[in-house]
Specification:
Elements: H1 2-15, E1 36-41, E2 50-54, H2 57-67, E3 85-91, E4 95-97, E5 102-108, E6 112-118, E7 127-132, E8 135-141, E9 146-149
Parallel strand pairs: 6-9
Antiparallel strand pairs: 1-8, 2-3, 3-8, 4-7, 5-6
Length: about 150
């Protein structure tokens, strides 16, 4: 009987170890910031800085297949309504710095939306010896505008 109870307790304790990789920061979609953070992780991004705009499920699934190649279990593909929303993925490139910038809208014109990198106020200043390739996946209302990343820091 004790073995069964101990086994159940261990099972319950290990189930919580598969924590959600979504950032703890609360993003509110607003007129100033149309982005809503869906998921972020320190592993799975690209070696160089890159901004990906995804407007269909097939491309999103392909992105997750790439980041899940070395994960067991892999990250689940988020549910996105591509009739109303689109996905913006920001990969900050290869780094050992834990201060990974996130995106905030800097400019919104009729034909173009420009995002800038910003460090969150609550991020701790720390560097690691491990090489990280972080990514941040955001969803936003569907638009035909060109999405770009500001060249200036």
């Amino acid at each position: 009987m004790r073995t069964i109870i101990l086994g159940l307790l261990m099972l319950v304790g290990t189930c919580g170890s598969q924590k959600d990789k979504t950032s703890d920061m609360n993003y509110q979609v607003s007129a100033e910031n149309p982005l809503m953070l869906v998921i972020s992780d320190n592993y799975g991004g690209t070696e160089t800085e890159e901004l990906l705009v995804i407007r269909d499920y097939k491309t999103l699934k392909k992105f997750f297949a790439k980041i899940n190649m070395t994960r067991k279990p892999g990250l689940p593909v988020p549910e996105i309504d591509f009739n109303k929303e689109m996905v913006v993925v920001y990969c900050s490139g290869k780094t050992t710095d834990t201060d990974t910038p996130e995106l905030k809208r800097m400019e919104d014109r009729d034909d173009k939306m420009v995002f800038a990198r910003v460090l969150a106020a609550n991020q701790k200043k720390d560097t690691l010896t491990a090489v990280l390739m972080p990514f941040h996946l955001y969803k936003m209302p569907l638009t035909e505008k060109e999405i770009s990343l500001s060249k200036e820091e």
